[in-house]
Amino acid sequence: MFVLIKSHPHQEKISKVNDVVNNVSTITLLKVLLTNHSFWIVTLFAGLLLGTLFNFGANWLIGFQNAFDNNNLAHSALVNSLMFLGVAVGNPIIGALSLYLKSRRKLLIIGSLTGCIVLAILILGPQLSQTTATILYFVFGFSCSTAILSYSVIMEILPNELQGIGIGICNTIVYLIGALLSVVIGYIIHFKAVNMTYFSSNLYLEKSSLSLFCLSLVCAFILSLFINETFVKSKTMS
User: Fold this and answer.
1) What whole-number distance in Å separates Cα of residue 199 and Cα of residue 63?
2) Cα–Cα distance between 123 and 61 in angstroms, integer?
3) Cα separations (Å) of 168 from 13, 101, 237?
4) For residues 115 and 167, what is the distance between their CA atoms, to the nearest angstrom?
5) What is the overall mean pLDDT for the chain?
6) Is pLDDT at 113 greater than 90 in this prediction?
7) Which of 16, 47, 48, 199 could form a disulfide with 173 if both were Cys (CB 3.0 to 4.6 A apart)?
């Protein structure tokens, strides 16, 4: 493997930012990261979008959809799988679209808005046919796959020395937000269950509690409006 790896000791195209940070201390680099507002905006965006996707899919979707499907557990499991299939299919397509459109920001905005609308229909809307629900869950997963571009944005706004740390922090925020959403929704359901006389059914109880996921995606959409375009038009294929 080492024979196949080529080094480039005479590489000349190095950004001015990298020239500045090459010889500075780790503390200084961390200060650069902590004070980079663009980084934190895109990180929170990814946390809200992916945190909602992972948490809803892993903890709540099957039980919630099962209530809609009259305890048809097989179909509930199917739509859960198809939602994540939408993410898998969407990742390379969104990457290709980003190159074609020469934009990260447009897709982040469209993806978060679409995901918010579709999830609101699935959670807050009326009972849907199994076919319609299956399609919408796939579309929801596909729209959430736009979050993959968040990592491209992080790579493009941070100097080389901070890119690994930045992506690591972004992943941490994703799982922290997902965990927080799960705890909050659990407490909401518990509190409302104690006062069950105010709710006509368990399904209504779940719908009102899971609406927090919709609010999370609304926040992600608002944040996407403040993400700067970072696509580098001068990049060429080597």
Assistant:
1) 18
2) 10
3) 26, 27, 27
4) 23
5) 83
6) yes
7) 47
